[in-house]
Specification:
Elements (H helix, E strand, L loop, with lengths): L6 E5 L6 H13 L3 E6 L5 E3 L6 E3 L2 E2 L10 E4 L4 H5 L3 H12 L3 E5 L3 H6 L7 E2 L6 H6 L3 E2 L4 E4 L2 E4 L5 H13 L1
Parallel strand pairs: 1-2, 1-6, 2-5, 6-7, 7-11, 8-9
Antiparallel strand pairs: 3-4, 10-11
Helix pairs in contact: 1-6
Length: 174
């Protein structure tokens, strides 16, 4: 298992993207990572964008800091647009980024990266719905399934989850 001992914060919020949460979460567990689901309130249950699946926050973003984790992963859906509004979330993401640790973002997750002020100067991808937001925040748009730029791992959309998982695991294992 490539990620034994790695501590990963996995953000969740209202209307998260089912597969971008669960497929990535399970891949990290499969590699031996210790994954902690972080939301706005400990114990809060969030329903996915499709309404079919739920995820429960184990801890609140306000109750943890960047030193507790080796990385943070942010799935897409509508959750990133809601999570980006909370300083505890953006501070956690920025703190992890500033420590040179891995930040994984897929689909709409770049919205959190924008609000955390970590995307400027990076190549970036995600849903076409946030392309202009990323460019306006100083990123260079790249239409590729997944890649790493510095300590950020980017994924485009749901069909690109396998490529995102490969890039994410490779970055976390290095």
């Amino acid at each position: 298992m490539l990620l034994n001992g790695k501590r990963i914060a996995f953000l969740v919020g209202p209307e998260f993207e089912d597969l971008e949460f669960w497929a990535v979460y399970m891949r990290l567990l499969e590699e031996g990572a210790q994954v902690t689901v972080v939301g706005l309130k400990a114990g809060e249950v969030y329903r996915s964008k499709s309404g079919g699946l739920t995820a429960t926050a184990e801890v609140a973003a306000a109750d943890v800091g960047p030193d507790a984790f080796d990385a943070v992963v942010i799935p897409g859906g509508w959750a990133p647009d809601k999570l980006r509004r909370y300083e505890a979330v953006t501070s956690l993401v920025k703190g992890i980024y500033d420590q040179g640790k891995i930040v994984g973002m897929i689909c709409h997750a770049g919205l959190v990266g924008i609000s955390a002020r970590i995307v400027a100067g990076h190549r970036a991808t995600g849903s076409l719905g946030i392309k202009d937001d990323l460019i306006n925040a100083g990123a260079t748009w790249v239409d590729e399934p997944a890649f790493r730029d510095g300590n950020i791992v980017w994924g485009r959309v749901v069909p690109d989850i396998p490529a995102f998982n490969r890039e994410l695991v490779k970055a976390l294992a290095s």
